[in-house]
Amino acid sequence: MDEQINQYQGWAGIRSWSRPSGLRGGDFILRHETAQSLTVMLGDACGHGDAAAHVTAFLEPILKREMAGSVDETVLRRWNRMVYRRFSVDNFFVCVTMMHLDFGTQLLTMINAGNPDVLVRRAASGVEHYRATGMPLGVLDDMEWRPPKAQCTRLGAHDYAVGFTDGLLDCVGRDGDRFGLRRVCTALHQRPGGVLRAMRRSLRVFESPTAEQDDLSMLILCGGGRAAA
Fold it and tell me: What is the mean pLDDT of each run of 10 residues along the chain (229 residues)?
């Protein structure tokens, strides 16, 4: 498995980690930054391996280009139609989380279509959960599909938001149980840079070396732009 830890130029407070289940996978992380704001997208095409990677390869350039603009319900419905028309015959769909951080106001806007909860770790008051508010892209046609609604909060200078794909929660352990949300929340007691290290250590101890695992990805976005040390 080829693990990838990304450290980005520009906004200091962003880190991500991806681990495909094979040579290629269906998870992807996209980023668009201006002088005023940062937008990141965490995506998960259902399944794994070459089939999921094929979906991702088609979508990534389109979503990367369009996430630079305003992503409203019209845009989301267009994305859903595109995925449904092209991939529904093969029962593929795509979960997407977008986070947009305004540098001036520290307003964080989240759109979650089918991924696990976005977690916001408050320096003073614990962890907040922001659940998916809409369906994955392409799971239903436009008449039945429910688009995600934006959720907003502010990130303090020492707060951070965490998004991840379901491959993390569904990682199979040595006893056959799943990694689950509780273990993820335990890692959030770390400073943000330590979250990735703690998560990787925990998974190495927990996961079964013989079970078939899914692709997994995690994205951390810090308030204040501080380095995730």
Answer: 52 83 86 93 88 93 95 96 94 96 95 97 91 97 96 94 95 94 86 80 92 92 64
Contacts of 136 (CB under 8 A, 6+ apart): 46, 93, 94, 95, 96, 113, 114
Nearest 5°: the CA angle 103, 109, 114 is: 140
DSSP class of residue 137 equals B
Cα–Cα distance, 73 to 79 (Å, whole number): 10
What is the SS3 assignment for 139? coil
The whole-model pTM stands at 0.90
φ, ψ of residue 126 to 5 degrees: the values are 85, -155
Distance CA 59, CA 86 (A): 11
**CA 132, CA 13: separation in Å to the nearest integer?**
24
Question: Alpha-carbon Rg of the chain, whole angstroms?
Answer: 17
